[in-house]
């Protein structure tokens, strides 16, 4: 039976930041579950970078069925957790079950991957104190306000934590995360 990895996400998650780790981790032999506030169909978005815009643009993306509601997740069933970005972490950071799950993986020193706006959930969960984390660059203030050290990189590794800026970093982010998983 394959080891399981949980992806914590929800509506308005960035499509590429969910599907790339989902498929890459499956390819590596893990059973991957999508956990969301409710077990239902989620609507993702596509964030893109357009010349002349001060920030990213957003368009409707793919849909995906959540495998499990966060309240029903037993974190001991999973060896690692992934927190994609997009806008989902903006509201997930207020979800007590999402925070509970994130804290569990940090307390166990289990592998954690987060990208883009995903570190917002880590900050709200109180786990960034003294940790080095990447994120979407405009979130540097959120990382440092939570007591972390912001590093603008595509595969920032701090012990069990692997972070990145956004979907253009998917390859280096998941390569580093797989290395952390294999050494755990």
UniProtKB/TrEMBL annotation:
Keywords: Hydrolase, Protease. The keyword Protease applies. It comes from the Bacteria. Coiled coil: none annotated. It holds the Pfam family DJ-1_PfpI. Residues 4-179 form the DJ-1/PfpI domain. SUPFAM superfamilies: Class I glutamine amidotransferase-like. One of its GO terms (molecular function) is peptidase activity. One of its GO terms (biological process) is proteolysis. InterPro entries: C56_PfpI-like, Class_I_gatase-like, DJ-1/PfpI. Belongs to the peptidase C56 family. This is Protease. It comes from Microbacterium suwonense.
